[in-house]
Write a structure and sequence with these properties.
heterodimer; A: alpha/beta; seven-stranded parallel sheet; 18 strands; B: alpha/beta; Rossmann fold; 6 helices; 30% strand; binds flavin-adenine dinucleotide; binds adenosine monophosphate; transport (chain A); flavoprotein (chain A); electron transfer activity (chain A); Electron transfer flavoprotein subunit alpha (chain A)
Chain lengths: 307, 252
């Protein structure tokens, strides 16, 4: 049983989630990785332990071309797998429809060769499905799996991608930041709409720095323009599974909780002791975030955490 | 320009769902149902394109039980012109939905198909992309802005790394994200007027698509429960808790 995995990219680098996807996909069989990007990205993919072969096709590609690239390759594999990211969501259902396969997506557990667990209803229920189709198209939530280690030396093979796209990329607005990748970060600090402004979010970012944490936000904070859209955590944002999530001025709406169910420990800072997030947090401090966050940052800096 | 909008009836997004104790699924009887929020944004986008003079007719389609008439009426009240209900009582998989919608596209020949980016019950995020592939139309998913420019669309998409803008030729398939617009509320006179708009009801079985499922749902279970932990009384105490957590992480 062989697996073709679409590598997840992060600009012109390999995304850290790819190593997690490799670990998950390895549960299904030997893994070939397709990189729709540069040869140097392919080289990094080749070092992930457990990768059998890397196929590189140049890129980045929009969904229609990626689907056309995957379609002929798919014939050689029992499983075609991608991350449950905007890339995977864009292309895998297309591919599945072309191959007349019902896909299984957002997988958080693999219980056998055709038995998967996926969340539904914003993570308020978990569905166990069996997929008896002879071939499988899957997307996997990288945050639910541990990364594969390095040290691999897979061969890299270049293939042509002769297709033309009807769709043209006009502009890409990449949120520049040097903080860790939200989806795979070990610590995440999140801010809600009560943070109140872009300047207010600087407090959250500063707290994040003292922990070397990634920074996230609620939809309400993004809608208000206080945080960029790619910081959104939740049902319609990023799914995170850090060891520690610090939720600052976040009420804990169902749709936000959908994104943090995988968090090991949750700490809430909120002025309202009755907020839903407080009811599920491991530790909570009740008070005004504008008072607490600067002090907390100073205390953590003073403790000099080695991160 | 003619627009087809696909809308799904789902458990209202404010309802806290309950998993049936026997693991057979999520309780939907006696639960408030409404139009999938993302579909509302899709309908609103279509209505705004008509109001802005870019589009003429909006046809809205829903697939599901008779009760899905509700969400079609909501779309008609928002400003869609006519409705199609493809009636099916059994649960249908996304590939089946996409095939049924492809059949409707073949009949209606819309220039633009608008869908929600995902249905908040199964959270699949499949149908728009599948429909684009089946009808060989270019797609723009997760749209937060749409402008029509002659025979082309310019769409801003919300993606993991930020935002991107793409141009694609019509006919096309676009799926709506939440920041696309603010769906209008429907005043009672609009709701009354909606009842007199044309609504065709057909059996989904008529369209020549195999409705049988491919996957088997073995069981549905509630997620592991989280319980309230403890309160700390001061910032220093909280700093201590966080430091201990971090040190434990580093130790592993
Ligand atoms: C279909 C759909 C999808 C959605 N997807 C998402 C999603 O992906 N992610 C997401 O986050 N949301 C999502 N939402 C929105 C969600 O329902 C909530 O509206 C949102 O999460 C609320 O954000 P918030 O916690 O910042 O704001 P609020 O709910 O307004 O909460 C603010 C909190 O801040 C506290 N507070 C106020 N002032 C202070 C202070 N000075 N100090 C400390 N605490 C303070 C309050 O007590 C309150 O708990 C979605 C909604 C829908 C309908
Ligand atoms: N039963 C249905 N009837 C009409 N449209 C649907 C149906 N199911 C899904 N859709 C459309 O496809 C979008 C994405 O749904 P999904 O792929 O199931 O998450 C929805 O927002 C709807 O626009």
């Amino acid at each position: 049983m062989s697996v073709l995995l679409l590598a997840e990219l992060d600009g012109d680098a390999l995304s850290p989630s790819t190593a997690r996807l490799v670990a998950a996909a390895s549960l299904l069989g030997p893994v070939d990785v397709l990189v729709a990007g540069s040869a140097s990205i392919a080289q990094s993919a080749a070092t992930i332990a457990g990768v059998n072969r890397v196929i590189v096709a140049g890129g980045p590609l929009l969904a229609d071309r990626l689907q056309e690239l995957l379609e002929p390759l798919a014939a050689q594999y029992q499983y075609v797998v991608a991350g449950a990211t905007t890339l995977g969501k864009d292309v895998m259902p297309r591919l599945a429809a072309r191959l007349d396969i019902q896909p299984v997506t957002d997988i958080v557990a693999i219980e056998g060769p055709g038995r998967f667990v996926r969340p539904i209803y914003a993570g308020n229920a978990l569905e166990t499905v069996t997929d008896p189709q002879s071939r499988h198209v899957l997307t996997i939530r990288a945050s639910a799996f541990r990364p594969a280690s390095g040290g691999g030396e897979a061969p890299v093979e270049i293939i042509e991608q002769p297709y033309d796209s009807a769709v043209r990329l006009i502009a890409a607005h990449r949120t520049e930041s040097d903080v860790p990748d939200l989806s795979t970060a070990q610590i995440v600090v999140g801010g809600g709409v009560s943070v109140g402004s872009v300047e207010g979010f600087k407090l959250i970012e500063r707290l994040g720095q003292s922990l070397n944490a990634a920074v996230g936000a609620t939809r309400a904070a993004v809608d208000a323009g206080y945080a960029p859209n790619d910081w959104q955590i939740g049902q319609t944002g990023k799914i995170i599974a850090p060891d520690l999530y610090v939720a600052v001025g976040i009420s804990g709406a169902l749709q936000h909780l959908a994104g943090i169910q995988g968090a090991k420990k949750i700490i809430a800072i909120n002025s309202d002791a009755e907020a839903p997030i407080v009811k599920i947090a491991d530790v909570a401090l009740i008070g005004d975030l504008f008072d607490i966050v600067p002090k907390l940052t100073a205390e953590l800096d003073a403790l000099g955490l080695k991160r | 320009m003619k627009i087809l909008v696909a809308v799904k009836r789902v458990v209202d997004h404010n309802v806290r769902i309950r998993v049936r104790p026997d693991g057979s699924g999520v309780e939907t009887t006696g639960v408030r149902m409404s139009m999938n929020p993302f579909c509302k944004h899709a309908v609103e986008a279509a209505v705004q394109l008509v109001e802005g003079g870019s589009a003429g007719e909006i046809v809205v389609v829903s697939i599901g039980p008779k009760a899905s008439t509700d969400v079609i009426l909501t779309a008609l009240a928002m400003g869609a012109h006519r409705g199609i209900l493809l009636e099916a009582d059994q649960a249908l998989e996304t590939l089946t939905i996409a095939k049924l919608l492809a059949a409707v596209v073949a009949e209606e020949q819309p220039d633009l198909v608008l869908l929600g980016k995902q249905a908040v019950d199964d959270d699949s995020n499949h149908v728009g992309q599948m429909l684009a592939a089946l009808t060989k139309r270019p797609q723009a998913t997760f749209a937060s802005a749409i402008t029509v420019d002659g025979a082309e669309l310019e769409v801003t998409r919300e993606v993991d790394y930020g935002r991107e803008t793409i141009r694609l030729p019509l006919p096309a398939v676009v799926t709506a994200d939440l920041r696309l617009n603010t769906p209008r509320n429907t005043a009672l006179p609009m709701v009354m007027k909606a009842r007199s708009k044309p609504l065709a009801v057909r059996s989904a079985a008529e369209l020549g698509v195999d409705l049988g499922p491919r996957l088997t749902i073995e069981k549905v279970s509630p997620p592991p429960e989280r319980v309230a932990g403890r309160m700390v009384g001061s910032v220093s105490e909280l700093a201590g808790v966080i430091a201990a957590e971090v040190n434990e992480m580093e130790a592993i």
